[in-house]
Amino acid sequence: MAKADRVLALLEALQDHPFASGPQLAARLEVDERTLRRDVAALRALGIPVEAERGRGGGYRLRPGYRMPPLMFTPAEATAVALGLLAAQRDGVDAAGALAKLRRVLPDRVRLRVEALEQTLRFTRSGRGEAPAPESLLTLAEAARRGRRVSAQYTTSAGATARREVSPYGVVGHGGRWYVPAFDHGRGELRAFRDDRFGAVRPGGPGEPPPDGFDAVTFVNRTLARVPFAHEVEVILHTADAPFPPSLAELEREGEHTRLRMRADSLDWVAGLLASAGCPFTVVAPDALRDAVHALGRRLCMTP
Questions:
Q1: Per residue in 265-280, is it b (16+ CB within 10 Å) or e — as a string?
Q2: 153: DSSP letter
Q3: Which of 7, 168, 174, 258 is the most buried (most CB within 10 A)?
């Protein structure tokens, strides 16, 4: 752990516990007591009043009554930060510590309102993915920003793990999961990887530049829409404004119409989806989808 990280961790520990012995703090921070004393001196040099009691039962504490200077957030700024952390927590990110720190450094008037938001905010759905590994996510994001490649262990959906060398092009959040569009050097093609399936990510040399005009969100949406399913569906929607997200289907504008291509396991589900589109449509394929649409129509027209 770098010195700056150790010093911040020490301050956090002293804020969490009114009094702690040297051995207790050293064990929590995973350092020896000599290093602990140097980090205490670093905090004092920053003007933070760390008091020490010597002898048996001695230890360290922050001066009674001392509080960190309040963070100068406006209510709107504090709301934005809190909403971001709460949304991340919903999607599996461990944000409890960050929320606790935010509460500690906000002025009382703003803190009370943020706490009210925490206690009353609810979401219509919970995240369905695995939380990202923070260090892996940061390494991948940095590689994307600097145009570098990385090597990492990657586990597929089938459970097979292998070493991959990839050039990341960004990080895309979708549906509670985090995807990394990247060039796979071993396979020589673009892929959308799940961040939570990476392990032991190590930065490498210069990466493969992205294709001209590459857009990370568009690529991930297109990749998710092409995930293999039992049926390949093609439909002409008689509207130029298709009401479906690009992650659900590939949508191609054709004049006043839209060609929809998607994959699905249930044609009955597709029939219901098309019925909700609010526009006429023509089924191109498969033929069995026409039967599913007709069957749905008959059920909807049935009277008691």
A1: eebeebbebbeebeee
A2: E
A3: 168
